């Protein structure tokens, strides 16, 4: 018998479902579980990926939120069978290092995306280095975003960035409302790349960094690279896996 650890968002629908599932299935704490089942939306999944990364347990999401791109369909029956048949996808996070105006260094992780965004009415100026080589001396715009394949259909897609298949070993580097260089629309990089963003004239043009659901203020330098030593196995039902969803997203008319 599979030991299941249930977690959920605080929204009423998710809490109601949590109570039902706990009554229907024998459950344990996430620490003692074989599989963690997250009830909610993509935000709940991101929270769970961060919170339970250290447990090295697979996570299976069921959608009780809005979009639920990272979630499976919510059904109250047959959960144990679904968990046994689920397809795992190995997700590694981006490791980020933020340096602020006081030279304070903050490190964090992001499974979806990381961005450097203007924090005032003034346009941001950002220098972009890839593997310690300057590629753009001055990007003028609202900012710049780095996305993993799992996060490429979120904010990255709204910026007209590429939707990336999960199996592709690349990261998307996408500008946010670029003014100069006018024709630059971003790049695809090997996921071994080290990306460094520098805020130019940050006293007059302050920027902040955002990583999944976190924010860091007054940033002067942002370093990003994938940490392949860390990973979580995200579980999907056959026929409704993340790879299929990403393909569908590229052919959607809605």
The ordered H/E elements are EHEHEHEEEEEEHEEEEEEEH
CATH topology name of the largest domain: Tumour Suppressor Smad4
Distance between the termini: 41 Å
Helix content: 10-25%
- By CATH, the architecture of the largest domain is named Sandwich
In short:
The chain is an alpha+beta fold and 254 residues long. It is built from 5 helices and 16 strands. The strands form 2 sheets. Strands 5, 6, 7, 8, 9, 10, 11, 12, 13, 14 and 15 form an 11-stranded antiparallel beta sheet that branches.
Task: Describe the structure in your own words.
It is built from five helices and 16 strands. With 254 residues, it is an alpha+beta fold. Strands 5, 6, 7, 8, 9, 10, 11, 12, 13, 14 and 15 form an eleven-stranded antiparallel beta sheet that branches. It has a five-stranded mixed beta sheet with strand order 1-2-3-16-4. Strand 5 and strand 6 form a beta hairpin.
List the helices and strands and how they pair.
Elements: E1 4-8, H1 12-24, E2 35-40, H2 42-51, E3 59-63, H3 79-85, E4 87-91, E5 94-100, E6 105-110, E7 113-118, E8 124-130, E9 133-147, H4 155-158, E10 170-180, E11 187-190, E12 195-199, E13 207-211, E14 214-216, E15 219-226, E16 232-236, H5 242-250
Parallel strand pairs: 1-2, 2-3, 3-16
Antiparallel strand pairs: 4-16, 5-6, 5-15, 7-9, 7-13, 8-9, 8-12, 9-10, 10-11, 12-15, 13-14
């Amino acid at each position: 018998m599979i030991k299941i650890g249930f977690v959920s968002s605080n929204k009423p629908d998710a809490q109601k479902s949590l109570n039902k599932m706990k009554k229907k299935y024998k459950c344990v704490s996430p620490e003692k579980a074989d599989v963690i089942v997250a009830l909610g939306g993509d935000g709940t999944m991101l929270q769970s990926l961060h919170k339970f990364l250290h447990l090295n347990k697979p996570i299976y999401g069921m959608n009780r939120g809005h979009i639920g791109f990272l979630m499976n369909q919510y059904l109250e029956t047959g959960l144990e069978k679904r968990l046994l048949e689920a397809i795992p996808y190995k997700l590694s996070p981006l490791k980020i290092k933020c340096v602020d105006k006081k030279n304070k260094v903050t490190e964090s992780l992001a499974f979806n995306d990381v961005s450097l965004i203007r924090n005032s009415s003034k346009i941001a100026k950002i220098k972009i280095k890839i593997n310690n080589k300057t590629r753009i001396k001055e990007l003028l715009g609202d900012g710049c975003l780095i996305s993993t394949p799992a996060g490429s259909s979120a904010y990255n897609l709204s910026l007209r960035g590429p939707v990336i298949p999960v199996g592709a070993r690349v990261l998307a580097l996408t500008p946010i409302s670029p003014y100069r260089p006018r024709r630059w629309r971003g790049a695809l990089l090997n996921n071994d790349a080290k990306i460094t963003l520098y805020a130019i004239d940050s006293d007059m043009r302050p920027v902040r960094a955002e990583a999944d659901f976190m924010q860091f203020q007054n940033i002067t330098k942002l370093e990003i690279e994938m940490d392949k030593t860390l990973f979580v196995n995200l579980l999907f039902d056959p026929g409704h896996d993340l790879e299929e969803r990403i393909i569908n997203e590229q052919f959607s008319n809605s």
